[in-house]
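Q: What residues go here?
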């Protein structure tokens, strides 16, 4: 499959949530728009920081009709060791084998230099004030991506990260889900 683009339909994939059974994306999305943010794995300090930031601003992000999901290369067991279902206001979709990353061509960085570009150093500095690195899972050089889909899975936003910190802010997601 090729990289996803605005106007295309996202594949109606089926995957397990950290605290739930396998379920199709089409049954997870709501009536409004849904953001699907692909990060690395839960042990990643940057990923923990992004998840925390999204959780802090969840209601502003989703408004009355939006939804948010984060996809990680972590196993449900790994997530359950670190949190409960009630910890986050959104669902984590687990893709420990990286099948969705491959399907949607969310490629890893060529090297650590590419992964650490942009504002990674500044963001890691902030993240380390709150989090420490946990278990390594998945592809260590994995780059992030973010998509917004309508209820029929038509893509209204597609972003492939250029470095490890290149994901939409809560404020950007809020605008994208309106």
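A:
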């Amino acid at each position: 499959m090729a990289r996803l683009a605005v106007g295309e339909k996202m594949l109606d994939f089926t995957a397990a949530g950290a605290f739930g059974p396998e379920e199709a994306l089409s049954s997870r999305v709501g009536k409004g728009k849904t953001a699907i943010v692909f990060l690395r794995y839960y042990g990643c300090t940057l990923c923990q920081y992004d998840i925390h930031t999204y959780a802090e601003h969840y209601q502003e992000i989703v408004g009355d009709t939006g939804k948010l999901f984060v996809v990680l290369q972590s196993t449900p067991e790994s997530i359950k060791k670190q949190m409960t279902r009630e910890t986050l206001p959104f669902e984590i979709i687990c893709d420990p084998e990286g099948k969705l990353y491959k399907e949607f061509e969310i490629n890893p960085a060529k090297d650590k230099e590419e992964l650490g570009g942009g504002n990674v150093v500044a963001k890691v500095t902030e993240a380390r004030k709150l989090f420490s690195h946990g278990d390594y899972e998945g592809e260590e050089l994995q780059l992030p991506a973010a998509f917004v889909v309508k209820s029929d899975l038509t893509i209204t936003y597609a972003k492939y990260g250029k470095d490890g910190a290149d994901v939409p802010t809560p404020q950007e997601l809020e605008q994208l889900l309106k």
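A: Context that may help when evaluating the design: The beta strands are 14-17, 22-24, 34-38, 67-72, 91-94, 145-149, 155-160. The longest helix spans residues 45-56.
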